[in-house]
């Protein structure tokens, strides 16, 4: 770290980005004090939580001084994030900072370009403090790689922060950053938010352009990766999405995002809204605390005038097979290209080992696993082999057919939104992400529908809930889930909110209602984390 900071001013760390922006604009507090306090917080947690990949603290302080000068000079036009510090995920290009994806052989030369989404935030006045850590190649739900090391969960260092936006979630949860930018292809925003007790949104697939992003699944089009905002408060995510979607901030023409205007969450009426509740997707049973969180969120919405209706996911096993067949269609070929010539993590080595099984061995291995009580591993082995072009076409067709069944069930119940778990267990132990991939089903099947999906914290695990979920002692994946539940008391639990494509404002309105009713920020968020 090139500069050592101490906090300036009481109560800065932990405030909402929107409140900080207002205070800076009013001259109540300086951008320098805000930036300096967040730098001090990041420096205090980096040694034991390790959320950061790269920092630019000295330059951020210089930008804060410029922001303060603009206030003193009476500049009338201020961006909505003027002088507010933010962090961004390592995969987003920013001048002066490298993008490696945690690959040891990738160039560490600083970027000269800036990601268009980061540029929009900066044009709104935000000041980038640092890039945050990721899993190697952004391939699994724990943040660990040989370039930057391991990020731990702020609530319990023996547990993961999630992935692939795990460093971002950890930085925000500890108050090191009031607002951040992540990305999501299969829970990479939502799972870390659930594990770390913060708020995040994966926008509608295609809402934000993704053609410029540093990719891992290069060329994959089975479903779309999306950048998305992460914060401690729903109102900050609302503001960030509005900035990211605002026209006229950049001259760059979007190559992929259609011109669909982002709606205003404040104009959405909760009273009379019909919200589905799904406690268990039928693929992986959620922990007792997670089921309780979904029920409590449903009751909070009912208390505010929403109509609650139980929703049953159609043929979830088919949905999960489609997801894995599509995302593994190349048999790991692109991952091998990405990692060739460098040091790979144990998680990457396990993934690559599974992809190398020939078809006959894959079928035999899956059958043996199923016969020995390891049916979940058998399914994953069977569903993740390489596909021919014809097979890829057929599974894409199956995706479209599943979408039709899903929306038929949705429209039959006349739903406006759906609440469900974001993951089947609380934050698990380091090294368990491969074993618990199936437990992430709740963040995977929504990708097939392209839905906007947000996560908002609701509660924490109670001691008596650690051993309440009956699980098989024979199945290794079920045992891993039990292991994750034991000792999880006090860990945060979030719920996921879904809505039809292009109704991102509905997701944000429901998230706001859950946050308002849960009073999470008045209790758990003010507890000390990362000690």
Note down, in words, how this protein is organized:
With about 525 residues, the protein is of the alpha/beta class. The protein has two domains: about 15-310 and about 415-525, Amidase signature (AS) enzymes (Alpha-Beta Complex), CATH 3.90.1300.10; about 315-400, no CATH class. The protein has helices spanning about 15-25, 30-45, 55-70, 115-125, 165-175, 190-195, 235-245, 290-305, 315-325, 335-340, 345-355, 360-370, 375-385, 390-410, 440-450, 475-485, 505-520, and strands at about 50-55, 85-90, 125-130, 145, 150, 150-155, 155-160, 180-185, 200, 225-230, 275, 305-310, 415-420, 455-460, 490-500. It has an eleven-stranded mixed sheet, with helices on both faces. The longest helix is centred in the C-terminal third of the chain and has 24 residues, at about 390-410. The relative contact order is 0.13. Residues about 250 have low confidence and may be disordered.
Kindly summarize this structure in a few lines.
By secondary structure, the protein is α/β, with parallel strands linked by helices. Helix content is 38%, strand content 13%. The chain folds into 2 domains: 17-311 and 413-526, Amidase signature (AS) domain (Amidase signature (AS) enzymes); 316-401, no CATH class.
């Amino acid at each position: 770290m090139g500069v050592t900071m101490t906090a300036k001013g009481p109560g800065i760390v932990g405030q909402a980005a929107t409140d900080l922006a207002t205070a800076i604009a009013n001259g109540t507090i300086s951008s320098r004090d805000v930036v300096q306090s967040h730098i001090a917080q990041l420096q205090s947690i980096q040694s034991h939580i390790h959320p950061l990949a790269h920092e630019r603290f000295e330059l951020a302080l210089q930008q804060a001084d410029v922001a303060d000068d603009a206030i003193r000079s009476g500049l009338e036009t201020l961006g909505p994030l003027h002088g507010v510090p933010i962090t961004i995920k390592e995969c987003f290009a920013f001048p002066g900072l490298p993008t490696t994806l945690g690959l040891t052989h990738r160039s560490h030369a600083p970027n000269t370009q800036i990601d268009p989404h980061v540029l929009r935030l900066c044009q709104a006045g935000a000041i980038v403090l640092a890039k945050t850590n990721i899993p190697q190649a952004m391939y699994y739900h724990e943040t660990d790689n040989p370039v930057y090391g391991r990020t731990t969960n702020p609530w319990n260092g023996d547990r993961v922060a999630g992935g692939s936006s795990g460093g971002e979630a950890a930085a925000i949860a500890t108050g090191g950053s009031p607002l951040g930018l992540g990305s999501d292809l299969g829970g990479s925003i939502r799972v870390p938010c659930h594990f770390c007790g913060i708020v995040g949104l994966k926008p509608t697939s295609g809402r934000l352009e993704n053609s410029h992003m540093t990719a891992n699944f290069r060329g994959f089009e089975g479903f779309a990766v999306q950048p998305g905002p992460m914060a401690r408060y729903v109102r900050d995510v609302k503001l960030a999405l509005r900035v990211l979607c605002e026209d006229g901030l950049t001259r760059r023409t979007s190559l992929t995002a259609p011109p669909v205007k982002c709606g205003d969450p404040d104009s959405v009426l909760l009273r009379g809204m019909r919200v589905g509740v799904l406690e268990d997707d039928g693929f992986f049973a959620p922990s007792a605390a997670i089921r309780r969180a979904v029920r409590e969120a449903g009751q909070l919405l009912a208390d505010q005038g929403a109509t609650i209706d139980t929703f049953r996911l159609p043929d979830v096993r088919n949905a999960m097979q489609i997801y894995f067949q599509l995302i593994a269609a190349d048999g790991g070929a692109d991952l091998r290209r990405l990692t060739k010539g460098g040091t790979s993590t144990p998680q990457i080595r396990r993934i690559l080992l599974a992809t190398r099984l020939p078809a006959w061995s894959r079928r035999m291995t899956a059958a043996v696993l199923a016969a020995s009580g390891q049916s979940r591993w058998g399914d994953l082995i069977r569903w993740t082999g390489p596909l021919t072009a014809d097979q890829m076409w057929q599974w894409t067709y199956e995706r479209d057919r599943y979408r039709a069944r899903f929306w038929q069930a949705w429209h039959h119940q006349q739903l406006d939104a759906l609440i469900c778990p974001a993951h089947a267990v609380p934050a698990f132990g380091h090294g368990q992400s491969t074993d618990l991939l199936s437990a992430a089903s709740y963040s995977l099947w929504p990708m097939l529908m392209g839905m906007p999906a947000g996560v908002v914290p609701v509660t924490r695990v109670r001691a008596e809930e650690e051993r309440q979920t009956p699980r098989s002692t024979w199945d290794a994946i079920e045992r891993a889930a039990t292991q994750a539940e034991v000792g999880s008391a006090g860990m945060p639990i979030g719920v996921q909110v879904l809505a039809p494509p292009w109704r991102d404002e509905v997701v944000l309105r429901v998230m706001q209602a859950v946050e308002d009713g849960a009073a999470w920020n008045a209790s758990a968020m003010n507890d000390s984390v990362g000690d």
